[in-house]
Amino acid sequence: MAPNQPNQPDQPDQPTQATGPGRAAPGRKATPALTVLDQSGVPYQVEAFKPERASAGVGEGYGQAAARALGADPDTVFKTLMVKIDGRLWCAVVPVSRNLDFKAAARAAAGKSAALAAVTEAERATGYVVGGISPLGQRTRHPTLIDSSAESLPQMLVSAGGRGLDVRLDPRDLARLTGATFAPIGRF
Fold first, then answer.
1. Biggest alpha carbon distance in the chain?
2. Does any domain span residue 4?
3. Is there a domain that residue 42 lies in?
4. 128 CB-near residues (< 8 Å, 6+ apart)
5. Which among 60, 117, 145, 160 counts the fewest CB atoms within 10 Å?
6. CA torsion 107→89→149→113, rounded to 10°?
7. Which of 9, 136, 16, 149 is nearest to 73 (CA)?
8. CA distance 166 to 131
9. What tens digit of pLDDT does each residue of 15-72 get?
10. Which residues, 6 or more positions from 3, have their beta carbon under 8 angstroms from its beta carbon?
11. pTM of the model
12. CA 81, 86, 87, 88: dihedral to nearest 10 degrees?
């Protein structure tokens, strides 16, 4: 297979891959997140999977199921949550293996309280649907916190702006592109 060419999986359950810049997953349109990555020139890899294959099993959340569908360590797959900290919308990026620690997020943002934003507010503010919210290319740029566990990773997976579409990139590139701060905001 030639470098930077999409992987053609033998089995339909396997994730498809494409390497950027300029490479959306096979059969997929570019998303605002991928456009940001293409314009930035940072290296990244798109990984697509069938969201219905990642439907949650018993005791398993969507993020854990997505990690399983991607064949990735859940500590390297991150979910994007929109939270209200003292009434202001923030983007919180935490591993799917952890929950967001709302008190820690509020402290990291120099705030007093944090709560999950309503689905409609998160979708309206980001331009993405829940389950496909990316920290990149949001309709309105929001202050962003990334769990500090990402700092030690060579690469992490985050939503590329669509359900069943993730992007693998260096956490420091994500932080730079989003203006994010690394903080211990995840808890087991």
1. 53
2. no
3. yes
4. 134, 138, 159, 161, 162
5. 60
6. 30
7. 149
8. 11
9. 444 444 444 445 556 899 999 999 999 999 999 988 764 454 545 677 888 888 899 9
10. 19
11. 0.83
12. -60
